[in-house]
UniProtKB/TrEMBL annotation:
Annotated GO MF terms: symporter activity
Occurrences of domain Major facilitator superfamily (MFS) profile (ranges): 28-448
Membrane-related topology note: Multi-pass membrane protein
Primary location class: membrane
Localization (cell): Cell membrane
InterPro entries found in the cross-reference section: H+-coupled_symporters, MFS, MFS_dom, MFS_trans_sf, Sugar_transporter_CS
Pfam family, one: MFS_1
UniProt cross-references to Gene3D superfamilies, sorted A to Z: MFS general substrate transporter like domains
Protein name in the entry: MFS transporter
GO CC entries: plasma membrane
Family statement drawn from the similarity comment of this UniProt entry: Belongs to the major facilitator superfamily. Metabolite:H+ Symporter (MHS) family (TC 2.A.1.6) family.
Keyword terms, alphabetized: Cell membrane, Membrane, Symport, Transmembrane, Transmembrane helix, Transport
Amino acid sequence: MTAETTEFRANPGPSRAEVAESGLLRRAAFASFIGTFVEWFDYAVYGFLAAVIAKVFFPATDARSALMATYAVFALSFIVRPIGGVIWGHFGDKFGRKATLSLSIFIMSGATFVIAFLPGYQSVGMLAPVLLLLTRMVQGFAASGEFAGAASFLAEYAPDNRRGFFTCLVPAGEATGLLAASLFVAVLYGVLTEEQLLSWGWRLPFLMALPLGFVGVYIRRRLEESPHFQSLEEERHVPVAPVKELLQNHLPQIFTAFGGTLVNAVGFYLILIYMPTWLSDELGVGKEAAFLSATVTLLAYLCAIFLMGRLSDRIGRKRILLLCSGLFMVATLPLFSVLSSVDYTGMASGGYLLILAVLSLFGILFAMNGGTLATFLCELFPTRVRFSGFALSYNSANALFGGTAPLAATWIGGFIGAAYAPAWLLTIAAAITFVSIMFSRAGAPGAKLED
């Protein structure tokens, strides 16, 4: 431990009790939740409208190629995620969480709003997918600062014995944004004809981004900075070059965080984003029924996530993450086998009820990871480089394996059969996460944030 760290710990700033009693914790929790909700509603509508966007921006190819091109744009937008993680982490650790989070939601909302006005392939040819890619990359850059920043901000407000419960509000906001996007898209499919969807209907959810973004910025700008970062400023211990310090002193934690994030990254985009498309294309489930199933999955996830966050406060993050990874390794292939054998004959059929049951189980299983991972990553890194360490490792895992998961599943499906491609991806990711978490010393019961 350095002399700087010893001096800092002697004056840690406002106590957790003072923060909670003043109402700052409740305000920080609400702001973290609503901000993450806004950003991920914006981000998710692209994934849920992938089949429509494929026809608007890539109509000159066959259906599978167009869908792969759409997911390729989705995946390429993740190239900027590690870069964004470094930049947002630098600003978050050097200038504060509050200002950084306000800026990230502003950029995300602006880029999403622009998508609503992009011309299609029939109007401008190949310029259309190029413009789509550029706006998606701006979205990816903005998103790379959101999850890590919001989780770090809230974890630094929460008391030690309830950090897991409060920090899981961030993935809960993320899932609620996905749920709202899924419901919105399901309504579009239900009330509009295919011609209306292709003509103007797909633009509607993107138009909502700007007003939602202004709400998020307003709420976040009214917050106070987290107690931990305030103490760094008061003691003049804010790092000059946080990313450099991170790479020099915390490389093992980066590898642990990267590996520990893999099942979350792959599972998030396969279970919560890609699944409606998979159900429609592979099982013949109607679009409206497919998005309803996504809604059920998200509801199961949301119902379970707070329980998992609270449970992690009692038994530790590491145990839950190991159990989750182990269950994914054992259960994913059998569950996909059940899905692939379903005889779907309509929303009122027993086959559809079986689909909903399996997806609900996936939602609960994924909540074990989603409700725990953010707190685990916050506890891996000290305050001086927490934002940077979280953002770099989390966004790198999502860029390499998360954003590419739908594309990989679609591509691999052409060789081994699309029914089991997502299952194999999830199983391999779970195995890597299990090993990474197993050898970590973080996530024990009663863990405290390192200053």
